[in-house]
Design brief:
Blueprint lengths: L10 H8 L5 H10 L14 H5 L4 E2 L8 E2 L3 E4 L2 E5 L4 E5 L11 H9 L3 E6 L3 E9 L4 E11 L4 E10 L5 E11 L4 E10 L4 E11 L4 E10 L2 E10 L4 E10 L4 E10 L5 E10 L4 E10 L6 E11 L5 E10 L4 E10 L3 H8 L5 H17 L5 H19 L4
Parallel strand pairs: 1-8, 2-4, 3-7, 6-8, 7-9, 8-10, 9-11, 10-12, 11-13, 12-14, 13-15, 14-16, 15-17, 16-18, 17-19, 18-20, 19-21
Antiparallel strand pairs: 3-4, 5-6
Helix pairs in contact: 2-4, 5-6, 6-7
Length: 396
């Protein structure tokens, strides 16, 4: 399959190319947004056309009998293992956002008519491992997460690959956080010559008095973009944090919209970006407060450190506000490591490389330490150090 063949096609042509029926509303929405290109605001800095122009083999997604495991294992878009008692189904996604800004959100749903539905019952903690084993493949799947009212769940997400090359992963979540409940999602993705690129397009609905925490830790090289749309009902809250630590010629980052629909809803979004080599970091984030979102409190901030002259940060924090009764702030800064601090550490016998590592970890730690589970916190720190030494050992 070559996804670029969908460019500038009408409803009937898209139906024919994707061999789908009875999904005209979704197709119309996809056609109206168009296949993303450099001219698309959300993909302007990501070179998505290069990914869409490749020829990929398509995979067959057949549900399997689940093996009992201590985590949910998804291999090439198919769930193969899960903790005992966890309710997982394959069925159509019942609540698709018809106002999402990302055309690949709709393409993902069109390519994946059967979503992986996971019901998080009670107070629970789940780890989801995504494994990719197919080269030259388009790996597409959607996951639907539901929480129960008055319950609190945590999802830890990580990614592994097995010697693949030239694959594209197109996946995403539709999360529904029930009233008076909370969901914490901690995503850790280390990529380094991983053999795949990724576009992850998510939608998160946060119901009345519910609390969402979304923390992403994106480390290493390669190309990946996550697109988030988060909607907040009355007195709902989201705490979003994004750590980028990139090297080589990586292009990775976050494009997001946080929409305040309910009164007294609150949001906090913080991005920390450390860019080495000729990498490009992306933080293109909009907070929109609608007329119904009186007494909103919104805070958005991006900070970046450039470790190399060729590194480049695109930071676009934005506010779109339709009312006066609110508190909102946003900002972005980009700088370099302090030579004064480096000199101070070196004067105490610490090598320049170790001094640089200490300063970048100190910069990143305010986000890493928001991960409550110390085991996962240490896993992120270990991956962070491994990525650091991939580049800086060469300087010894």
């Amino acid at each position: 399959m070559n996804l670029s063949t969908l460019k500038n096609k009408n409803l009937q042509e898209v139906n024919g190319l994707l061999d789908i029926k009875d999904r005209d509303i979704l197709v119309e929405r996809f056609v109206s947004l168009g296949l993303p290109s450099k001219k698309s605001e959300e993909y302007r800095y990501f070179d998505v056309e290069k990914l869409l122009e490749k020829e990929y083999k398509t995979l067959t997604y057949v549900p399997k009998t689940l093996r009992v495991s201590d985590k949910i294992e998804i291999v090439d878009g198919v769930v193969v293992a899960a903790p005992q008692g966890l309710r997982i189904y394959n069925e159509p996604c019942g609540q698709i956002d018809m106002d999402h800004f990302d055309p690949l959100y709709y393409l993902g749903h069109l390519l994946s008519p059967q979503a992986i539905k996971i019901e998080l019952d009670g107070d629970t903690e789940v780890e989801i491992e995504h494994k990719f084993t197919q080269s030259n493949a388009l790996i597409n799947y959607r996951i639907v997460l539901y929480t129960q009212a008055n319950r609190h769940a945590t999802v830890y997400e990580n990614f592994v690959e097995e010697g693949i090359e030239n694959s594209l992963v197109l996946y995403g979540y539709d999360m529904h956080i029930a009233q008076d409940s909370s969901l914490r999602v901690v995503k850790m993705q280390r990529m380094q010559d991983s053999g795949y690129s990724m576009v992850a397009s998510h939608k998160i609905n946060v119901d009345r008095n519910a609390h969402a925490v979304f923390k992403s830790f994106d480390l290493g090289g390669d190309n990946a973009l996550q697109l988030l749309k988060i909607e907040l009902a009355e007195r709902a809250h989201v705490d979003a944090g994004h750590l980028l630590y990139l090297n080589s010629e990586a292009k990775r980052g976050t494009v997001s919209q946080i929409v305040h629909r309910g009164e007294h809803s609150t949001s906090k979004q913080e991005a920390k970006n450390i860019l080495d080599g000729a990498s490009r970091g992306i933080f293109d984030a909009l907070i929109r407060v609608e007329k119904s979102g009186k007494y909103t409190k919104a805070e958005q901030n991006s900070k970046a450190i450039l470790l190399h002259d060729k590194a480049y940060m695109i930071a676009k924090p934005q506010l779109e506000i339709y009312i006066d009764e609110l508190e909102a702030s946003h900002g972005a800064t980009t700088g370099q490591l302090s030579e004064k601090q480096l000199f101070y550490l070196q004067s105490r016998g610490i090598s320049r490389i170790e001094a640089r590592k200490m300063l970048v970890i100190a910069f990143a730690n305010t986000l890493i330490e928001t991960v409550k589970d110390s085991r996962h916190q240490e896993r992120i720190k270990k991956a962070f150090e491994e990525v650091f030494y991939l580049v800086h050992k060469k300087d010894n």
